[in-house]
Amino acid sequence: MIPVNPTPWESNLWQQSLKEAYRSSHALLQALGTQHPASIEPADFPILVPKSFAARIQPGQPQDPLLRQVLALAAEEESRPGFVADPLLETALDAPLETSTHPTTAAEADKVVPGLLQKYQGRVLLITTGGCAINCRYCFRRHFPYQAHRDRDLRTALDAIAGDNSIEEVILSGGDPLILSDPALAQLINRLARIPHVRRVRIHTRLPVVLPQRITAELVTLLTATPLDVVVVVHANHPQELNADTLRAFTCLKSTGAWLFNQAVLLNTVNADPLIQIALAKGLFAQGVIPYYLHLPDPVAGTHHFYVDSPQALAIYAEMQARLPGYLLPKLVREVPKKASKMIVSSP
User: Fold this and answer.
1) What is the SS3 assignment for 18?
2) What burial class does residue 153 get, using C-beta atoms within 10 Å of its C-beta: 0-12 exposed, 13-18 middle, 19+ buried?
3) Which of 19, 162, 187, 261 lies 20 to 30 Å (CA to CA) from residue 201?
4) Which domains are delineated in the chain?
5) Helix axes 274-286, 310-323, angle to 10 degrees
6) Cross-sheet strand order for the sheet of 116-120
7) What confidence tens digit (pLDDT) does each residue in 32-91 have?
């Protein structure tokens, strides 16, 4: 059993670690002593891999499942029918910023306010930043126009949330919201807490997994003190991603009273195997995280080599269902544009 360390990290460590991250395929492969003839150096979506994550990659193994998630390959440059820049139509309804007025509901805000998306009833998604601690090659927002959604202090988006009494939950997304500094995150969460009808804040983040040092004493204090209910949805795709540092990060987050869930993406050549998914579910639970969603990958341009179709996914899921207790079985879902919720995958 991995010993539990409940102590947060010092506040300066994660930013220094991010500065030292690998930023080219060549540097990453050289550090791992690995060769991969299909690797490339893309300009539009560059390599970004923290050393804390790279340390979990098996040296000399070009097919390592963690390496496959972060190494840019020539397949990304291939065009495939049905794989597009914006498969979820997140930007299709956006109006030019100069047409913005003062929306009366967040549903209207989705069309006119930068940084604010409302897909489902009662909750909105706030694009807090375009930055991440790691550039996952299957990212569904790798082509997202973050510049068009810039709102320096998020005042317009927060005004829209305050003006819509149906909004109970605000989802902080991006990019990754934990890329924000602790003071910036505190300012945002405190402003949300002052909106009477907002009851929950949900933080979607990969940092507790890929850069656990981000879980600082300041962050723990902030999440403990807020009157909002806090939900943290982390993102681990493979049991190899879990180690003593992720356990420490999750333990610190749970100490704040936050609920911890995981959503994974089912990825060809990474985790499209029932035994891997079963090990992931058990590993997450052992570290205090509930498996929540298992997503079919979105058909994003440049990611076709990760794609898993419904029949394959259902075969994997059937074996998971046979071997896991219900509380460890994530929901198998896909996201369909303009639907009122994520769609449960139940048939090909």
Assistant:
1) helix
2) exposed
3) 19
4) 13-344 (3.20.20.70)
5) 50
6) 116-120, 123-127, 169-173, 200-204, 229-234, 259-265, 290-295, 331-334, 343-344
7) 999 999 999 998 899 999 999 999 999 999 999 999 999 999 999 999 998 988 887 777
Q: Which of 267, 281, 279, 240 is nearest to 56 (CA)?
A: 240
**Which of 97, 137, 132 lies closest to 116 in space, CA to CA?**
97
Alpha-carbon distance of 305 to 295, in angstroms, equals: 16
Structure tokens at 252: 């610190």
d(CA 174, CA 134): 12
Percent of the chain with pLDDT over 70: 91
Total residues found in the chain within this entry: 348
Give the model confidence (pLDDT) of 182-200 as tens digits.
Answer: 999 999 999 999 999 999 9
Rounded Cα–Cα distance for residues 229 and 227 (Å): 7
State the Cα–Cα distance between residues 318 and 119, nearest whole angstrom: 29
Q: Which residues pair with 234 in a beta bridge?
A: 262
Q: Which amino acid is at 144?
A: F
Q: What angle do CA 190, 226, 214 make, to 5 degrees?
A: 85
Positions of E strands within the chain: 116-120, 123-127, 169-173, 200-204, 229-234, 259-265, 290-295, 331-334, 343-344
| pLDDT tens by residue, 100-151 | 333 444 444 444 487 888 878 899 999 999 899 999 999 987 777 666 556 6
Give the β-pairing of 200-204 and 123-127. Answer: unpaired
Q: How many CB atoms lie within 10 A of CB 60?
A: 10
Q: Are 204 and 146 in contact (CB under 8 A)?
A: no
| Residue showing tokens 């819509």 | 164
Alpha-carbon distance of 202 to 194, in angstroms, equals: 16
The upper half-sphere exposure of residue 210, i.e. CA atoms within 13 Å in the direction of its Cβ, equals 27
| Pairwise CA distance, residues 267 & 289, whole Å | 21
